[in-house]
């Protein structure tokens, strides 16, 4: 048995060898570097190049056009306002409360599964 065979893990569905994995990793790293090295060298961070292009229109206030995470889920939150209201009252931000909820619900589930209720 050679050293490379000793590193190979064989299974009924195939094999796994860290040397082969490393070889593919090096090959893909070289390909990635070649693609990166052919990039545009005229890019200058911190200049006009980094500003967003909005059809040639100047942007006065970025906050007006920014889509916040709360805006994305606004419809869900508005539709489920009653449900989220209950959850927000239960949410304390204290990790100990969440652990207590986790243990309490785990105990109830265990009681139901073992007790056969």
Task: Write up this protein.
With 117 residues, the chain is mainly α. It is built from 7 helices and 2 strands, in the order H-E-E-H-H-H-H-H-H. Strands 1-2 form a two-stranded antiparallel sheet. Strand 1 and strand 2 form a beta hairpin. The protein is flat and about 60 Å long.
Short overview:
The chain has 117 residues and is mostly helical. It has seven helices and two strands.
For the residues shown, what is the average pLDDT?
87
Helical amount: 55-70%
Share of β-strand residues: 5-15%
Low-confidence stretches: none
Distance between the termini: 58 Å
Radius of gyration, whole Å: 28 Å
Order of helices and strands: HEEHHHHHH
- The total strand number stands at 2
Q: Helices and strands: which structural class? A: mainly alpha
Shape field? flat
Determine the number of helices (DSSP H or I, runs of at least 4 residues): 7
Side by side, the strands of the main sheet go 1-2
Biggest sheet details: 2 strands, antiparallel
